[in-house]
Amino acid sequence: MSDTAAMSVPRPCDLLVRADAAVTQDRDRRVLTDAAVAVKDGLVLEVGGQAELEAGYEPEQRLDLSGKLLLPGLVNGHTHLPMTLLRGYADDLPLMDWLEKHIWPVEFQLTDDLLDTGARLGCAELIRTGCTAFLNGYFHEHVTGQAVIDCGMRGVLGEGFFGFPSPLFPTAEDCWNTIRNLETRFENHPRLRTAVTPHAAFTVPPEELAASFALAEELDIPWQIHLAESPTETAVCLDKYGKRPVALLQEHGLLTERTTLHHCVDVTDEEIALMAETGVNVVHNPASNFKLASGMSPVQKMLEAGVTVGLGTDGASSNNQLNMFREMGLAALMGKVRAEDASAVNAQAALDMATLGSAKCLGWPELGRIEKGCPADMIALDLGFPNLMPVFNHVSHAVYAATGMEVCMTMVAGEVLYLYGEFRTMDVISLKTKAREAAKWVCNAAEK
Ligand SMILES: [Zn+2]
Q1: CATH 2.30.40.10 domain residues, the chain
Q2: Window from 102-111, 209-218, 319-328, 332-341 with minimum mean pLDDT
Q3: CATH topology of domain 74-361
Q4: Paired strand residues for 62
Q5: Of the candidates 138, 137, 131, which has an alpha carbon nearest to the alpha carbon of residue 152?
Q6: Is 262 assigned a ligand-binding role in the annotation?
Q7: pLDDT at 4
Q8: Are 229 and 284 within 8 A, CB to CB?
Q9: For residues 34, 40, 42 and 44, what is the CA-based torsion angle, rounded to 10 degrees?
Q10: Which residues form a coiled coil (predicted)?
Q11: Side by side, which strands form the sheet with 223-227?
């Protein structure tokens, strides 16, 4: 008998959500039918059957999601949010050409106003496609932080830096103060955290990587880096340092539970074993890896070895979407081709990556589940869409059949951010105008 059923007097709660079914992603991966969730102070108070929770709670508000499937908010483990501004600007190019000739020259000219537009555009797309939290890496992260505060999402923000001079930071150490200030600025915010974010092992020298890791330890925040993204990166690392990327990090003591590695496409079986042993977290980015022809990450091997694997979209210019539903589908499909096994990276594994796995990669493990005591970050899929009928297995539909456009409700900390086509915390009309203006600026900046 549950807590509520044992009581005769209904307990107060802020909100009672009812849905046809709920994929909880709790420890037992329970999928409940005729489900209800009681919410109080932004947290899940109880998850159970509708009759049970209706009898046990007296809510201030109700949200009736008949015909809908409730899921935990998806967690995007890797993105560069303001890069929405560069969506579709330079496509169909190899990674190094794309970065050095097209992306970096424009990025280095971006202003705070433009970054603000890009970040808000990114938040709108994430909210619309059922993502409630993300791990970011970009420049002027206080701008993205303000966008996240305003729109009601959750974010872990990392000020990116290189080992070579950039307009923002003449040296890597020049970034340290910015990171400290970012951490101080958002220290007490319930929906914002920070992470130390060197760009990659081939763009930041090992000594500076180690120094930045010491800063992450001092501040007790995650340390994230792009790693082993392609065989080209491995060749550059071997040439510069005589070591493959994973071995280079290991040599400097940078493979730890605090570490989140983005991509890990070009990794050997021995490296996967080392990653499992050291407890590093990996974020898989299948669409970006496909688009930049970086290769196929051996995800099934990592899962079998016990590595924590999350899922991310990467930036909107190498994907070109921030849609975690498409990413889950691609993760499952790529996983099977890479492993040459149709049972590899099954639907539950893909959903686990996009929820519980990514949550660990953010250093925020209580996210990605609908469970008592966890943040009330939830989304709903409208099961009335033709592509979601009939239903045999809700997890299968979420991973293989849903496109993300069936998301009809997105909630963070008990606050509804999006409901039936309406953004409640964002002005998407003015965003459209700003996005058009930003596109003109990008075209001009590219010619400079
Ligand atoms: Zn990236």
Answers
A1: 11-72+378-412
A2: 102-111
A3: TIM Barrel (3.20.20)
A4: 16
A5: 131
A6: no
A7: 47
A8: no
A9: -40
A10: none
A11: 223-227, 259-263, 281-284, 308-311
Could you tell me the distance, in angstroms and rounded to a whole number, from the CA of residue 32 to the centre of ligand 1?
36
pLDDT for the residue 99? 84
- Is 78 flagged in the annotation as binding? yes
Predicted local distance difference test score (pLDDT) of residue 1: 45
> Ligand 1 centre and the CA of 79: distance in Å?
6
What distance in angstroms lies between residue 445's CA and the mean position of ligand 1's atoms? 22
Q: Which CATH architecture has domain 11-72+378-412?
A: Roll (2.30)
Q: Which range among 174-178, 189-193, 226-230 shows the weakest confidence by mean pLDDT?
A: 174-178
Separation between Cα atoms, residue 135 and residue 150, nearest integer Å: 17
Give the span between the Cα atoms of 282 and 271, in whole angstroms: 12
Count CB atoms within 10 A of the CB of residue 11.
15
Separation of CA 84 from chain center = 15
How many angstroms separate the CA atoms of 414 and 14, rounded? 8
DSSP state, residue 190: T
Q: Please spell the DSSP secondary structure of 39-75, one letter per residue.
A: EETTEEEEEEEHHHHHHHEEEEEEEEEEEEEEEEPEE
Residues forming CATH 3.20.20.140 domain(s) in the chain: 74-361
**Are the C-beta atoms of residues 358 and 310 closer than 8 Å to each other?**
yes
Name the DSSP letter for residue 10. Answer: P
Structure confidence at residue 433 (pLDDT): 97
pLDDT in tens, 3-41: 544 557 999 999 999 999 999 999 999 999 999 999 999
Ligand 1 centroid to Cα of residue 226, in Å, is: 6
Is 314 assigned a ligand-binding role in the annotation?
yes
Per-residue burial over 14-24, b if 16 or more Cβ lie within 10 Å, else e, is bbbbbbbbbbb
Question: For residues 252 and 271, is the Cβ–Cβ distance under 8 A?
Answer: no
Number of residues written out for the chain: 448
